[in-house]
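tokens incoming
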């Protein structure tokens, strides 16, 4: 049987352990807050990038894609392709030239912390949204980019991407002007005519 004394000792031990745990929790919370506030400040070398792409995650510039909540592997791959001249588009070919492999990783990780893009313009036309969704379903766009269009693995987040950029880039995949990391997108778009591509770009860019 335990004496009163040893019971007290056990109690003290429990309470000091739970204090330690509480302090551990607070320290972890403080670290998380600190990391988040540090993340809000873009690294110096990204300030220029965000003048075009915007640090709100939503791009207000014509034909400039939003990068908020984009998947880090997708960003890394695309910057690699710009740097190696596999995806050719001004000004990115020049912008990517000086970037090291570590830069590509750091940029991907940082962009993923920006808020996801918001839809631009007024409320969408429900009939066009229904047509776009049916096309996206029938052509397996939703299978790879997920039903909420947030992407997975190598398939990018496309929900609320700018309509002008999306239309331009879908046409470029179809014509072969934009080369993907693999042939997935060119193949996915092959059966679709331009009218369908216009509807898909509308649907993607107004996703709520
Ligand atoms: C002067 C404006 C401008 C600046 C500065 C700029 N970009 Fe871009 N960026 C663009 C445009 C325009 C495109 C789209 C190119 C195309 O049409 O395919 C793009 C595309 C991209 C893409 C591909 C996005 C996607 O959805 O496929 C990434 C990633 C990117 N930029 C990252 C960066 C980074 C990192 C920097 C800084 C080192 C940077 N950009 C600086 C204009 C800019
Ligand atoms: C088998 C999987 C798969 C299917 C099906 C698919 N995608 Fe993709 N999508 C990808 C991948 C992977 C990429 C990145 C390709 C690259 O390296 O450029 C991509 C890229 C894109 C981009 C470029 C995003 C950007 O920021 O530049 C858009 C837009 C897009 N897909 C829309 C669609 C639409 C619309 C459909 C249906 C017609 C579709 N996708 C079907 C996997 C898929």
């Amino acid at each position: 049987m335990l004496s009163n004394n040893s019971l007290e000792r056990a109690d003290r031990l429990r309470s000091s352990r739970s204090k330690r745990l509480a302090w551990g929790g607070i320290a972890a919370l403080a670290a998380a807050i600190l990391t988040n506030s540090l993340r809000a400040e873009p690294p110096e070398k990204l300030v220029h990038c965000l003048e075009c792409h915007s640090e709100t995650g939503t791009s207000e510039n014509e034909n400039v894609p939003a990068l908020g909540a984009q998947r880090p592997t997708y960003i890394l791959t695309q910057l690699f392709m710009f740097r190696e001249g596999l995806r050719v588009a001004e000004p990115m070919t020049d912008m990517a030239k000086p970037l090291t492999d570590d830069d590509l990783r750091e940029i991907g990780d940082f962009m993923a912390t920006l808020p996801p893009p918001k839809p631009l313009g007024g409320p969408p036309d429900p009939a066009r949204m229904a047509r776009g969704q049916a096309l996206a379903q029938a052509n397996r766009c939703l299978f790879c980019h997920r039903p909420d269009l947030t992407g997975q693995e190598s398939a990018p987040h496309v929900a609320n991407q700018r309509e002008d950029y999306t239309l331009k880039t879908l046409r470029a995949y179809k014509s072969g002007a934009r080369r993907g990391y693999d042939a997935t997108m060119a193949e996915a778009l092959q059966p679709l005519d331009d009218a369908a591509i216009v509807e898909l770009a509308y649907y993607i860019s107004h996703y709520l």
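note: The first helix runs from residue 4 to 40.
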